[in-house]
Amino acid sequence: MPFSADDHAWMAHALQRAERGLTTTSPNPRVGCVIVRDGQVLGEGWTQPAGQNHAEIEALEDAAQRGVDVRGATAYVTLEPCSHYGRTPPCAKALIAAGLARVVSAMEDPNPLVAGKGLAMLREAGIATQSGLLADAAHELNIGFFRRMREGRPWVRLKIAASLDGRTALANGESQWITGEAARLDVQRLRARACSVLTGVGTVLADDPQLNVRAFSTRRQPRRVILDSHLRTPPGAKILQGGALIVCADDQAPGADALRGAGAELLALPGADGRIDLAALMPILAQRGTNELMVEAGATVCGAFIAAGLADELVLYMAPSLLGSDARSMLVMPSPAAMAAVQKLRWFDMRKVGEDLRLTLRA
């Protein structure tokens, strides 16, 4: 059956609820649910932090608090209701027990433990089901979760702040601040939605960053990851406060014990030429629940991700300033031998943030 205008409106409403979990649901997907009958909202909710209620249960509990009966109603859910026991019971069973007449989902769940089984469970119980409404918006909201479920690696987002001539720092390394306050706040929002934030030891030594969310309160901080082949990270670095994962070439190298004593976890992933095997790191981060990885690093690390084909998205904050030819370039990577081999990106979004431009491109 085709979807009605009302169906579109209510799924859009459910997607708005899902967005409220943008920074909190990881590693679970961001899901919203609204239960409707005769054009009236009976209950609504969104997925809570891992181990707590999913969106459907939140909506059912909201309806109970309102004192309304949901039997015969329609539930609009931005992702297929789960059908398995994990940290919480199956949402599909809860919808069946509540007596819903119809369930509309934006997409099927890519999780192999679900993958159509939730909708099948509902149909077997006599509940009418439909899927595929506003699927693109639902996929975009959980782009990292879908990547992790389908390919076993996170969605990798590179963030770079640069001048109009593509420079990220003066020749002496000074870089604070190229972009304005509005752009820096926007970066904090991107950081808050990420599961992990990665940088290189060069950035740690030069800037001593914290790489946490400080501009606003959040219930969850992203995991900090440092690429440090030879363990040059100082034990007193700010980024180690609260713990961090240091990926190195040798986890028994000098300085290892001091870093462990400072609360760091060391992971050895040696690659070629004493460097780190970035490709091997991706499934490990995925196994640890990283849906979205944000890379906030220097030109060498960012260039390495692009050269290895691991960068899915580039978010470039471009300031209306010129640093000159002696300033540092925003990327260090091999140049192709011919124009036919140039790596091309596609424009995804362009907007002004304060006095700067935010350009989003995807591979």
Folded structure, characterized:
The chain is α/β, with parallel strands linked by helices. It has helices at residues 5-19, 55-66, 91-98, 117-124, 135-141, 143-151, 181-193, 201-207, 256-261, 278-287, 299-307; strands spanning 32-37, 40-46, 74-77, 102-105, 128-131, 155-162, 167-169, 196-200, 223-227, 244-248, 264-268, 292-295, 313-318, 328-329, 346-353, 356-362. A 9-stranded mixed sheet has the order 11-10-9-8-12-6-13-16-15. Strands 2-1-3-4-5 form a 5-stranded mixed sheet, with helices on both faces. A hairpin with a 2-residue loop joins strand 1 and strand 2 (40-46).
The geometry reads as elongated
Count, helices: 11
Which stretches are low in confidence, meaning pLDDT under 50 for 5 or more residues running? none
Please report the distance between the alpha carbons of the first and last residues. Answer: 35 Å
Percent of residues in beta strands: 15-25%
Strand elements, count: 16
What do the pLDDT scores average to?
A: 93
Tell me about the largest β-sheet. 9 strands, mixed
Give the H and E element order: HEEHEHEHEHHEEHEHEEHEHEHEEEE
What structural class do the secondary elements suggest?
alpha/beta
- Within the largest sheet, what's the order of strands? 11-10-9-8-12-6-13-16-15
Spatial extent as radius of gyration: 23 Å
| Residue share in helix | 25-40%
